[in-house]
Amino acid sequence: MASRKETPDVLSEILGGEPASPAQTPAAPPTPEPTPPPKRRAPAQRSRRPSKPKVQSWEVREVVFRDYGGYRARYVNGEELEGWKDGPVIHEYLNRLGAEGWELAGVGSRENREMPVYLKRIKA
Predict the structure, then answer these.
(1) Which end of the chain is less packed: N or C, by CB atoms within 10 Å?
(2) Could you give the 3-state DSSP secondary structure of residue 92?
(3) Is there a domain that residue 64 lies in?
(4) Would you state the pLDDT for residue 19?
């Protein structure tokens, strides 16, 4: 039969008996040295400050269409157009403005056979 490994008598020490001899007490494992925290890098400095985005300027146009054999442009920015009754109907008029860079921004409610339309485009 194999011989048993001797173990320290820790129980008698706890219960008030003779203290265990240091030769019999197993050595505690060495505590590892604490690792230093990782060094933080300073944020990369930019060579120059970022420029602020340019604010776009817009031109705005209000066109009021009147129902006269189809909706036709009657007022542009509050001024009545000459010969508006013979002018193009709404989709033809808006297509022309779109070719000039105007973009539809909103449509008001129809009242008294009139409908306001709001357009915008970037100022040159």
Answers:
(1) N
(2) helix
(3) yes
(4) 58
Reading the block at residue 80, the tokens are 């009545």
Q: Report CA-CA distances (Å) from 90 to 70, 72, 94, 104.
A: 7, 5, 6, 12
Residue 97 falls within a domain, yes or no? Answer: yes
Please answer whether residues 105 and 120 qualify as being in contact, where contact means their C-beta atoms are separated by less than 8 angstroms. Answer: yes
Phi, psi of 65 (to 5 degrees): -95, 140
Distance CA 11, CA 4 (A): 18
Q: Is residue 41 part of a domain?
A: no
pLDDT at 33 over 90: no
Supply φ then ψ for residue 33, to 5 degrees.
-70, 140
Measured CA to CA, the distance from residue 63 to residue 114 in angstroms comes to 10
54 against 63, higher pLDDT: 63
User: What is the tally of structural domains in the chain?
Assistant: 1
Conformation bin of residue 51: beta by default, left when phi > 0, alpha when psi is -120 to 50: beta
Q: Tell me whether strands 114-122 and 103-107 are parallel, antiparallel or unpaired.
A: antiparallel
Q: Which residue range is the domain that position 109 belongs to? A: 58-122
